[in-house]
Amino acid sequence: TRATPPPLPPIGPRSYDSEMPNASRMYDYYLGGAMNFTADRELAERAKTVLPCTPSLARLNRSWLRRVVNVCLDEGIDQFLDLGSGIPTVGNVHEIVQRRAPQGRVMYVDYDATAVTHARKLLKGNENAGILHADIRDPDTVLEAPEVRALLDFSRPIGLLMVGILLYVGEEYSPAGLVAAYRDACAPGSLLPISVITTQIVAERDPVTHKQILDLIAVYADASEQIRDWSKADLAAWFTGMDLLEPGITILPEWRPDGSLEADNDSEARLLGIGGMGRVLS
Ligand code: SAM
Q1: Secondary element (H or E) of residue 269
Q2: CATH number of the CATH domain containing 264
Q3: Ligand 1 within 6 A of 28 CB?
Q4: Most buried one in 7, 55, 129, 188, CB count within 10 A?
Q5: Pocket lining: 65 vs ligand 1, CB cutoff 6 Å
Q6: Torsion angles phi and psi, residue 207, rounded to 5
């Protein structure tokens, strides 16, 4: 039997702590955003010192997010639940969606107060997009939230985005169990893209960057989220009960490339992020 997961910290004031660097604001800093504090910038600079291609890794993930949302739209999906959505930045999901499907619906979820505050401001007046301040490790709360139920129709396929989020969820909270809980709430035909960081591929192909990514993971010991190192096999197991879309689980630049971000595609970061997209079976 699986051990009971540790209790989740309460949502709210904790995330306003400007002294404690956090994943959301550091990612914003890598992407050139201004929604970060001195402590975030200092730790992000330490991260860049040990792994100089860290901003490329963030951009590769952001580019992958855009591509998977477009694939979902191509497949006829017009409603999205974006888990760990982050601070609004270039290429927000509701912008990609509503450009192509003006009535498309997007519910963001993040536990970081900075992300939530800025998303609320940005989404003011947008009836088809919203943000839930919640911890994605508590799927019942997320899935039963009245604002989620009001915006999304779970009897129709949705795009359930877990992009750049499960790298912060430790085994003690069972990422496999979380994916299964979200999957089970989705109608057949729903699409679930997942991207994470891995040291597995670089370990075999680039020893210098391998050492650097291990050092980056160590730097995040001083952030409010730690980085977990998942493998292709972990992702494959999380996709149980789903069909994997082509080209399966790959490094991010090799997953349906669209010709953008060529410099990043060729950077040392290319082997550090992996992703795949599952389709919920009927
Ligand atoms: N999904 C966006 C993307 O791929 O560009 C943003 C990814 S950002 C690296 C990760 C986000 O996940 C951060 O905003 C962080 O606050 C959020 N996050 C991490 N753990 C979380 C949790 N347990 N519940 C809710 N949000 C979480």
Answers
A1: none
A2: 3.40.50.150
A3: no
A4: 129
A5: yes
A6: -60, -30
Q: Write out the residue range of the structural domain in which residue 80 sits.
A: 18-280
DSSP 140: H
Amino acid at 192: L
Residue matched to tokens 């009897």: 155
Please indicate whether residue 135, judged by its CB atom, sits closer than 6 Å to ligand 1.
yes
In 3-state terms the chain splits into helix, strand, coil percentages (rounded to 5) of 50, 15, 40
Closest atom, ligand 1, to C-alpha of 135: 24
What's the token pair of residue 24? 């959301």
Diameter over CA atoms, the chain: 50
Look at residue 9 and tell me if it is in a domain. Answer: no
6 lies in a domain? Answer: no
27 lines ligand 1 (CB under 6 A): yes
How many folded domains does the chain comprise?
A: 1
Per the structure block, which two tokens stand in for 191? 């699409």
Mean pLDDT by 10 residues, the chain (282 residues): 77 71 95 95 98 97 97 98 94 96 97 93 96 96 98 98 98 97 98 98 97 98 97 98 97 94 90 98 92
